Amino acid sequence: MVSQVDTSAIRDSDQQQFSDLAEPYRRELHAYCYRLLGSLQDAEDSVQETMLRAWRRLDTFEGRASFRAWLYKIATNVCLDALDKATRRGLPAMLYPSADPQATQVLTVNDPVWLDPFPDEWLDEAEMGLEARYAQRESVTLAFLTALQVLPSRQRAVLVLCDVLDWKASEVATLLEITISAANSALHRARSTLTKHYHSPVAERMQV
Questions:
Q1: Where in the chain is the domain with CATH 1.10.10.10?
Q2: What DSSP state is assigned to residue 66?
Q3: Phi-psi category of 91—alpha, beta or left, where left has phi over 0 and alpha has psi -120 to 50?
Q4: Three-state SS string across 87-148, please?
Q5: Sign of CA dihedral 170, 181, 36, 143
Q6: Over the range 54-68, which residues count as b (16 or more CB within 10 Å of their CB) and which as e?
Q7: Under CATH, which number does the domain 4-85 receive?
Q8: Which tens digits make up the pLDDT trace of 67-91?
Q9: Smaller CB count within 10 Å for the chain: N or C?
Q10: Mean per-residue pLDDT, 159-170
């Protein structure tokens, strides 16, 4: 944990010291934002915005939670803001034939084809066991990300934090500034919805 004195010293000196403190968390924040947003570019933009906000607001870090948790709180708010404002991405016209105005059936696209595959280099698996490594890789598959899209944004954040990153409900409640019972309720609803759209060993573990 970084104290207020430490962060004040960093804030008063130069950005390089802040970068040394925050950069070790960039890769895991990339993965987190990607799970919430489903887009590599949006995830990168959100992490950049997270780092910028953290630098600008460093003097507000009080040290009551870890610096990592503080970064996750900023990243969550950035992603939730993006999801609240987001509209469905336009699909490239060349992917589908032109619509026939005389046709009686309309072509529908059920899969969120804008989801980007996750690059292996964004995964930090150096100290993970085999089972943990498998679970992490499954949590960034397109199938899992597709299922996440059906969840409301806050339920999505709660589920990723609890069931993918193993945060406690109390920690998630603090991050989202809600009660523990509200966090547990959101997690229960998210799990119930997800299992209707996604079946795997990871999903089964979420029900335990």
A1: 128-208
A2: -
A3: beta
A4: CCCCCCHHHCCCCCCCCCCCCCCCCCCCCCCCCHHHCCCCCCCHHHHHHHHHCCCHHHHHHH
A5: positive
A6: beeebeebeeeeebe
A7: 1.10.1740.10
A8: 999 999 999 999 999 998 874 444 4
A9: C
A10: 92
